[in-house]
From TrEMBL:
Stored Pfam families: Glycos_transf_1
SUPFAM superfamilies documented for this protein: UDP-Glycosyltransferase/glycogen phosphorylase
Domain Glycosyl transferase family: 211-348
Alphabetically ordered keywords of this record: Transferase
Any one GO molecular function term: glycosyltransferase activity
PANTHER family from the UniProt entry: GLYCOSYLTRANSFERASE
The protein's name: Glycosyltransferase involved in cell wall biosynthesis
Amino acid sequence: MNVGCDNMKALFCYDGPLRKDKDGNYYGIALNNDMFSRYFQIADSITAVISTQNINEEEIANKYSKINLNNFQVISTPKLSSLNGILFNRALVKNVISEEINKSDFLIVRLPSIIGNLSIEIAESLNKPYFVEIVGCPWDAYWNHSYKGKLIALPSYWAMKKSVKNAPYALYVTNQFLQKRYTCKGRTIGCSDVSLRPLNESVLEKRLHKIKNMKNGDPIIIGTTAAVNVKYKGQEYVIKAISKLNKEGYNFNYYLAGGGDKSYLQSLAEKYGVIDKVIFLGTLPHEKVFEYLDEIDIYIQPSKVEGLPRALVEAMSRGCPSLGSLTGGIPELLNKKLIFDKGSVNEIYNLLKMIDKKIMFEEANRSFEKAKEYNKELLEKKRVTFYHEFIKSINNYQTCTEKNDFLKVEGNK
């Protein structure tokens, strides 16, 4: 690290959770080595105040990656993201955060999160520097989650608005959507949390060859990568749409990659007469995801809630012609003609009916080119520049403070 200060200690605040095994090792999915390593560009050590859950060996093998960074520690807190948590755990968590803030030079606050909101309140009261990273929308997440979720959607929305509005520095994972909904008066940047290795042009060539060799009557394979036990991911609308299409003589299969209890979607597929057309692949190891994406013909992201979906960007990086719902950052990625209102079976039906080989050729090229914007090196350079601006502002502030303190002392002599 070379940002003008030695031994900088960062505090990372987020609801999480991280997973913990019986030996005390921590694991995550999006919260992984790559993500936490970014912060070592501006910090010598990182402490994460975050809730944790126990994990078994089967879960580790399926989708979680071990966090094994040096100078990284976890301070586990009780869960706050529930009514009981807020009522009975808030005071304890507040004390933990306050103690850790006093040991740190600055905070990295990931939002939306209740721990994040609380840490900002404390940081401001202690005049401690912080920046926020906005990775999702609590309104969409809670409103589309359940009836109980609807009760806390509005309070969560306003809490997030307040946290982001006065942040001195804010990084958004979208370019437009989250910025419009949660405005910030400070310095801001749009920089996706999704990053890809350099793309190989041979991937696009194979995709175009695949499209060229499609024959009338061959099954058209649609794919979605998302948990199958979360209704707001929207797979049910695709199942209903292909049922209607297949009854009219089309031949659509639907491949679902993702973990969770599949019983609801499975019963729905049976009810709509496409149980043999809906294929549940379960959780795929990351190295197998690209093989699955190369096998499908069209990717669809039918979610009712999203930030900027990694699964969609990865599909586009394989040249997949892609459709998606009008939510979150999805419209920033796709051809506006291939976007449908969330939850609209009829619009999905009409779009799938419209797509032909000519459109697939055009969209394969478009997807591949758009995915290049998520090149890991380009995004990392943009992100690190932003981090260094933040650290420079801390150094300038500290220099001014020290100078003022010196002048006060000299003036009192």
